[in-house]
């Protein structure tokens, strides 16, 4: 599955549209003021929790804060170019290398979204707060989906390359193993020939 298909699935299913970019751009003069607070809250939490603190090297925090602010800036300016989405896919690969698991990333996506909602409710009348938060939520959900799938697919690709097998063969072998694991778990799916479904 390529990034275009993943992006399309995420956009259709979350309901993300160009309109979200417009809503975010219109309010960026307000939401851009929250960048520093977001970066502090984000890294205060990551550095106070031992498993995530261990990800970082000595003296790395300022650089990480700067790239988070840059990312946030791109989102709130509705800067959703093909390059932006491609970069989120690559973040999955970067996170594999730096041992940043998807639960770490998804947990922090949730935190950022909760903080953004809180700030929106303080800054805007209720209807506008819902619209701005909705746009941010959909955009960052698409981002989280791309990072997660980029992580998974790049991991699989690396395994294929290391093992030197063709993708179809790997999928057949994995299907056989998944069947065994479902049996072990005592699970029977509603259809018997599920391996025929699209992957
Ligand atoms: C909201 C969730 C997250 C987003 C949107 C995100 C986004 C990004 C982006 C855009 C980069 C590339 C930065 C660059 O330009 O160099 C990156 C790299 C990185 N992220 Fe994340 N990240 C998230 C969560 C996390 C978490 C939870 C951790 C740690 C527990 C983490 C640790 C890192 C590290 C260590 C790098 C690599 C920096 C490097 O070596 O160049 N990220 N992330």
Q: Main attributes?
A:
199 residues; 10 helices; 2 domains; mainly alpha; 77% helix; binds protoporphyrin IX containing FE; Globin-like; single chain
The total count of helices amounts to 10
Order of helix and strand elements from N to C terminus: HHHHHHHHHH
How is the main sheet built?
none
Content-based structural category: mainly alpha
Low-confidence stretches: none
- Please provide the count of β strands: 0
What's the helical proportion of residues?
over 70%
Could you say which small molecules are bound to this protein?
A: protoporphyrin IX containing FE
Q: What is the beta-strand fraction?
A: under 5%
**CATH-level-2 architecture of the largest domain:** Orthogonal Bundle
Shape: globular
**Euclidean distance between termini CA atoms:** 8 Å
Overall number of structural domains: 2
> Which whole number gives the mean pLDDT?
95
**CATH domain class name of the largest domain:** Mainly Alpha
Description:
- The protein is mostly helical and 199 residues long.
- The chain folds into 2 domains: 3-164, Globins (Globin-like, Orthogonal Bundle), CATH 1.10.490.10; 166-199, no CATH class.
- Helices cover 77% and strands 0% of the residues.
- It contains 10 helices and no strands.
- The chain has helices at 3-14, 18-26, 28-31, 35-48, 50-53, 61-76, 82-97, 102-123, 126-163, 167-184.
- Helix 1 runs antiparallel to helix 9 (126-163), helix 4 (35-48) crosses helix 6 (61-76) and helix 7 (82-97) crosses helix 9 (126-163).
- The longest helix is centred in the last third of the chain and has 38 residues, at 126-163.
- The chain is globular and about 55 Å long.
- It starts with a helix and ends in a 15-residue tail after the last helix.
- The model has no long low-confidence stretch (mean pLDDT 95).
- The chain binds protoporphyrin IX containing FE.
- Protoporphyrin IX containing FE (HEM) is lined by residues 46, 52, 55, 67, 71, 91, 94-95, 98, 100, 104-105, 108-109, 112, 143.
């Amino acid at each position: 599955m390529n990034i275009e298909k993943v992006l399309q699935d995420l956009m259709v299913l979350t309901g993300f549209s160009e309109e979200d970019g417009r809503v975010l751009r219109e309010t960026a003069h307000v939401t851009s003021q929250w960048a520093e607070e977001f970066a502090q809250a984000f890294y205060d939490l990551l550095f106070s929790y031992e498993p995530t603190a261990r990800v970082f090297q000595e003296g790395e925090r300022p650089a990480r804060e700067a790239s988070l602010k840059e990312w946030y800036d791109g989102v709130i300016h509705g800067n959703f170019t093909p390059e932006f989405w491609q970069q989120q896919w690559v973040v999955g690969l970067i996170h594999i290398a730096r041992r940043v698991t998807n639960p770490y990333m998804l947990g922090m996506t949730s935190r950022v979204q909760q903080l953004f909602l809180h700030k929106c409710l303080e800054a805007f009348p209720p209807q506008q707060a819902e619209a701005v938060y909705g746009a941010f939520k959909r955009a960052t959900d698409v981002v989280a989906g791309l990072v997660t799938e980029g992580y998974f697919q790049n991991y699989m690709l690396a395994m294929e390359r290391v093992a030197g097998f063709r993708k179809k063969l790997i999928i057949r072998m994995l299907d056989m193993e998944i069947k065994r694991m479902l049996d072990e778990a005592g699970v029977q799916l509603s259809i018997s020939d599920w391996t025929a479904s699209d992957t």
